[in-house]
Amino acid sequence: MTKGPGRGSGGPPPGRGRGPDGRGPRGAAGRDDKSGPGAARASGRQTGSTPRPPSGRADGSGRPGAKGGGARRPARSGMVPGPRKETPRKETARKEPARKEKGSERTAGAATSTKRPARKKTPARGAAGEGRAARTTRSPQGARPKSDGPRGPRPGGGSGRRPPPGRPPRPRVPFHRRDPLKRLNVGLLVVAFVLSLFAGRLVQLQTIESDEYTQQAMLQRMREITLPAVRGDITDAQGNPLAMTVEARAIFADPSLIKPEKRQPIVNALAPTLGLNPATLLKQISKPDTRFVYLAHGVRPDQARLVSSWNFLGIGTLPEYRREYPNDSLAAGVIGFVNDTGRGAAGLESSLNDVLAGKAGWQRVEISPEGQHIPMGEDQKRPSVPGRGVRLTLQRDLQFKAQQAIEQQVRATRAKSGTVIVMDPRTGRLLAMASAPGFDPNDYADSDRSRWGSPLVQDAYEPGSTGKVVTAAAVMEHGGVTPKTPYTVPDRIKKWDVVFHDSHDHAPEPLTFAGVLAKSSNVGTIMASESISEEQLYQTLRDFGFGQRTGLPLPGETAGQLEPPAKWSGTDRYPIAFGQTVSVNAVQMASVYSTIANGGVRVAPTLVAGTVGEHDKFTPAPAPERRQVISAKTARQISDMLEGVTTNEGTAPKAQIKGYRVAGKTGTAENVNPRCGCYDGGGYTASFAGFAPADDPRLVVQVVLRDPKRGSHYGGDAAAPVFKDVMSFALQSEKIPPTGSRPPIIEIRARD
Known about the structure:
seven-stranded mixed β-sheet; elongated
């Protein structure tokens, strides 16, 4: 084959192949970095460059040659132009996007590569059908083959491609950058829109919903602190404190500030110091949704200072008051105690709580998240109103002696319990109210709960022979019986199907009614009671206070048991006459003997002398009720007969006090056995009630021992010695001298 002519001025660039239609597609082989498609495109799109010819390179032809030729490559001799067999090209990272041009479309294989594989030579079409086919060879590594002459300048003086000759230049679309002012305006609009959203939300929070959020924020900061009122003191008749209020601290916690890892160290420190249950304390401080909880009340100031020195976050102290009982267990059954919440829980502390406690105030303050008081924050306050003090009729020294005496006797006799009451019969004032066993109100939690009450009014017992004075008053007032009325008294008597007997066997004795009372004969009392009706006996018992509460301000008082005659069985009147089948409390029985000692005038028992208010102003309590129960003559006669009880022929010679005339009555009552509802095996209640001086009674002392188990269970042996001990001290402390009068001669035995 004859070798065709080389590349002419009108041939295509070296290395360009032909497409299926005989037109050579754009190639990248042989171009340097400044003459590639990217460079031509960029330079051709610059403002002011020569427009692109309309008849471009859609068919791959018309690319200007190295020497400015735009002629087509001549076909090779001896060959017929036909479809070109494409050699696959290696794709480069950058692809030139396909562009539609006038009358043609760029081939999909226009992508260039840095190294183009060798391809078959095809005859090049010359410009306007002229020229000879030129054979081109690819230089190694894709270098552009040498041309016949130097490359001429590009049309328009730029670096763009030259339009093929004979075609009008294609206008170039100028590249315009976006207007920066528009971008700035769009950005400003976006920013303004976002700011408008924030501004709208701000207006909503500060104007439309400001009140709601302000209130919620205030509730988070505000804390209401209770300002406890100073509890009034309880004093004796001379103003000596029996219960008083001292400064203390309350320990509180803010669980929301306590971290989980700090809880156990706090429990380990506070529980033993404050005497708290560790499990309960841990549960209290482990509530993260709680801002305030009390851990302890009434903590001593020195303990509170120790707790504060530990600097536990979330643990604080508040000022409050603590109840203190300076005399320990003295009169604990009467005074009671105040529990951990500051409220009276027993005795006068409970029943007079409204008077003693006053009215608590409050203070609302703002608290920081760390639990500190914000000094300039919101602060509202309502001051507390202190409670009023209560002055009792009790006398501390006499109370101490009475309590000491009964405690010793309870231990000596192994009795279940015991009580002593000292009373002024003229005024009804209770000067001492002692009970044993007792408890210490300062440490009430460690004592037996059964001792917290006041057995002086809560415990009912059958009075036994001490109740015979009421029967004596009834038969002397309504039955015509006198102290000298004679009776032949056997040791037992049968009424209907029931046999009643005296405390010991004896032959029938001729006794006066005074002798019946002095000997404490049950049979003689039954015989005397038959002179009155059941209604008269019942009414006399009611007049002396049986079956009625005394009205003392002590919680849980029992009225005792006294059924009306309509409910009595056929034989109930007989045991009622000698003090069985009825029940009373200790204060009721002491009031009976005070009525006899006061000439038959019953003065209601009084425990509270008055109240003490602001500036120690004393307001006396209303005067107690006074009522004539029996005549003064009957009361005097009964008083004389009771003196016979303390003689050597009576049942209570152990109650005698040297230099003083003493009147009194013993009592030995059987207790009901709860297992059978009978008296068998129920034990006894030993008692003694009396007054002195007998001819001018100033003091009444009543002693009760429940179920003594050691020694004698008779009232003259178990209770009379306690009466003598307490009465002797009371006469001396009250500076009551002996009257010096001679006692009456009591005829105990009836004359034949």
